[in-house]
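seq as requested:
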Amino acid sequence: MSGAQSERPCTPGISRSAVQIDTEGGIARVRLNRPDVGNAVNLQMAQELEAGLHSLSADPSVRVIVLAGIGTQFCVGGDLGCPVDDDEGVHAHVSNLTTALHAAVAVLVRTDAPVLVLAKGTVSGAGVGLMAAADFVLAADSTRLRLAYSAVGLTPDCGVSFLLPQIVGRTRALELLLTNRTLLAHEALEWGLVNQLVTAEVLIEAGQNLAGRLAAGPVRAFGRTKRLVADALGGFEAHMALESRTIAEQRLHAEGREGVSAFFKRRAAIFL
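C-alpha cells:
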C-alpha cells in the first residue's frame, strides 16, 4: 500500500475500469487507470489487475506483457482510503486488497511472457513492488522512487520485503524501507531496480521496441527460466501472505492509525 488519497476511493460500484488491457501482435499492454490519484491501487484496481493478468497468462498468443500507468505517474502505491470505518471492516478490506494484489504479482513473476514495466513520475510503495516483480524496467530519467510505508506507520506489501533485498541487498533495502528517502532514477539504475533510463518523451517508444524484440523470442523457454529463478529464491507466495497479515494488523495498531490519519490531514505523523 502506502500511496494516495481520494474521496471514498474504494467505494464499490465505480463504473470506470481501473485497469485497461489491449493486445496486439502478441504484446499485451496493461495500463493502470486511476490517473487522478496517481494510479493508486484500490480494491477495484487490485481485483481487475489479478483477473486481467490471469487471463493474459492463460492466453498462448500473449508473448510479452507491458505494464504502465495512464497519466503522469506509474503508481504512487496503495490507496489509503477505506470504504468502512469499523476495525473488522478495515482489517478485512486491507486483507482483501493485498490478497488480490499479491495474486497479481505472483502472475507477473511466474507467467511465461516476459513482463516489462514502464516507470515514470513518482513510484511509491506497491508501485515499487510491481517494478521489482517485473523482468525488465524502463524508466524515465525523471522518475523518483520512495517506499513510504513507515511514513504512515505501515509495513511493506506487494512482495517488496521479499524482492527488494534480493535486488539491492539487505542494507540498501532497509535504508529505503526505514528512512523513506527518495531514490532518484540514476540511483535506481545503479542499484539494479531499473534496466535502462530514457527521457520521458521516448519512454513509450523505447518500451514498444523492447517489447517487440522480446515477443520474437522463445516465450516458453523464457517462462521456464523465470520460474527457475523464482523457485531458487523460495517461498515467495508464502512470504506475500505474511505481508498481507502483517500490514492488515499494523493498519489497526496505534502507529498505523496515527500514520494514516496524519496523511489525510496533511500533517507530520507523531509516533511517540
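The domain at 19-202+213-265 is CATH 3.90.226.10 (2-enoyl-CoA Hydratase; Chain A, domain 1).
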